[in-house]
């Protein structure tokens, strides 16, 4: 895929150079080469700028996408751990069955843990 892109870039440079360096029949013979080189140089620099900047933005987007995927995978394991802990806290509250005092004790315990603070609000 990269070789195809490089081939297209090479052909683009060749075609632009050929189109810009076509001899003007009205220009004096001594000015034809200088004008062609000047125009080709300007077009080449603009072509490089117009190809490099979007490519860099695409690479940055891919890097951000990969970074986001890694963070989402890490978040999945954290969410599973919180859900499991919440499940065990619920089972403990049901088994204790002491009513409001057991519930208060579990809520106070959960407030002491940073991962449960978000669940309690």
Describe this structure in words.
- With 121 residues, this protein is mainly α.
- It has one domain.
- Helix content is 86%, strand content 0%.
- It is built from four helices and no strands.
- α1 packs antiparallel against α2 (32-96) and α3 (100-112) packs across α4 (114-120).
- The model has no long low-confidence stretch (mean pLDDT 74).
Specify the overall morphology: rod-shaped
Give the termini distance in whole angstroms.
51 Å
Helical segment count: 4
DSSP, total strands: 0
Give me the secondary-structure category: mainly alpha
Rg calc: 33 Å
Fraction of residues in helix: over 70%
Query: How is the main sheet built?
Result: none
The figure for the number of domains is 1
The pLDDT mean sits at: 74
Order of helices and strands: HHHH
Strand content: under 5%
- The unreliable regions are none
Layout of secondary structure:
Blueprint: H1 2-20, H2 32-96, H3 100-112, H4 114-120
Structure summarized in a few sentences:
It contains 4 helices and no strands.
List its salient traits.
about 120 residues, mainly alpha, about 85% helix, about 0% strand, rod-shaped
